[in-house]
Amino acid sequence: VPFIIPPKFHGRDWFNLTNGEQVQDDSDPYVTPESGPRCSFHSLAYVIGSINPELYKFPEDKSETDFPECNIGRLWFSVQYEQEAERLLVSLIKARKLQPPTDSCSPLVKIYLLPDERRYLQSKTKRKTLNPQFDENFIFQVSSKTLYQRTLKFSVYHVDKQKKHHLLGQVIFPLKNETFTGDSKLVIWRDLEAENLEPPSEYGDIQFSLSYNDYLGRLTVVVLRAKGLKFQDARDAASVYIKVSLMNHNKFIKCKKTTAVLGSPNPVYNETFSFKADQTELDTASLSLSVLQSAEGDKTHLLGRVVVGPFMYTRGKELEHWNEMISKPKELVKRWHALCRNT
């Protein structure tokens, strides 16, 4: 705001201060303003010399306040990679709004670096709190060559009086989409997911989300993970990927593939694919998701497949998933499906 000398102060003497400010040299330090609107020196000085605190508020951290319905808890952590020492540093920060089976909660967290599900690192148990503050650091030794093929898994448990562990939820965090630069450490938060405790089907299961944007005519598939896959040979070196194909009247339209995950019967992908599909085609279109194991040369083995689509092609859970996607436009609808080999 430019400083303008009101007419009533014209002609008065002013002297400079060392810091460049100016102050009026007046024999009477108390100047009574004239009646009327307060646009005099006093009101102007208030505008210039005061700070409006509303202009200096930091953006609110909504991760602490915005919890969706049916939320079972939220976890904060950070990840850093030391290139020279080939060490993955994981900082477990806190959890909020955990939902234990009883009124009290004594949580702990087990941290896995998938595909190794036999070994894990574990936090201390926090007593009687739904909002534990952990502030603990963990180190995984992992080479830079395999880093981006690994996935962090955080399993949050409640420990009861008999020392039994009750799973409250988990967070799956693939490292393949992360950029590790220098000493930067980014705080990440994720909502807990309930683990699917049903045993795998005969050929394994696959989890994915469907969404349809009727305005853009876009069908989106998010391939999340698979579990209980039955490898045909060379289990330790098995490389598994998922092929997503869009069909119309059983005619192939387009297909896309995930990256291959090495050595795990429970691979995690978290990859998104989009297909153009007009709304009028949804009654004749379908999606086929095939789980394939790479073999020597260019050969592949089909480990299982699932097809989702309208009544023309599917029944049961696959039809329900498709219909729910259509009834909830622009919303991601997530489900598990059993794999078959005769689909």
Class by alpha and beta content: mainly beta
User: How many helical stretches?
Assistant: 2
Portion in beta strands: 35-45%
Tell me, rounded to a whole number, the average pLDDT. Answer: 81
Summarize the helices and strands and which ones pair or pack.
Elements: E1 14-16, E2 22-24, H1 41-49, E3 74-82, E4 87-96, E5 107-114, E6 116-122, E7 133-141, E8 151-159, E9 165-174, E10 186-191, E11 205-213, E12 218-227, E13 239-248, E14 251-257, E15 261-262, E16 268-276, E17 285-294, E18 300-308, H2 316-327, E19 333-338
Antiparallel strand pairs: 1-2, 3-4, 3-10, 4-7, 5-6, 5-8, 8-9, 11-12, 11-19, 12-16, 13-14, 13-15, 13-17, 17-18
Family: Belongs to the synaptotagmin family.
InterPro entries: C2_dom, C2_domain_sf, Synaptotagmin, Synaptotagmin-15/17_C2A
Protein name: C2 domain-containing protein
Features:
19 strands, mainly beta, Immunoglobulin-like, five-stranded antiparallel beta sheet, 3 domains, four-stranded antiparallel beta sheet, 343 residues
